[in-house]
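Lab notebook, bench 4. The sequencing result for the construct came back, and we need a structural model before the next group meeting so we can plan mutations. Quick request posted to the team channel:

Model the 3D structure of this chain.
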Amino acid sequence: QVQLVESGGGLVQTGGSLRLSCAVSGSAFSNYAVGWFRQAPGKQRELVAAIGSGGSTNYADSVKGRFTITRDNAKNTVYLQMNSLKPEDAAEYLCGARLLPQRDFRFWGQGTQVTVSS
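Done. Here's the predicted structure in token form:
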């Protein structure tokens, strides 16, 4: 099992940038794929971006070209660089991990809030 701790959320103006961090501990980091999810009030949780153990990535269409997910295996940390933020990006952002080759994200952090002012 792993434990995940998010950080880096906050208040930013439209067009601004934030970098979220997800620190992973407790097990072999390289055995896990990690994803960033977000959930706004009244909406379903959605996958924003994910990164595999080898660095392969996928993104939601709504963030392609604006968000970048990376992982630092030496630091057991996954980052989400968010640029050109829009009010609709405001949400609680959570990181999740899935033990490869399982398909379900079963391990979750507590979340970090992102607020985008217009």
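The longest strand covers residues 91-99.
Will bring this to the meeting.
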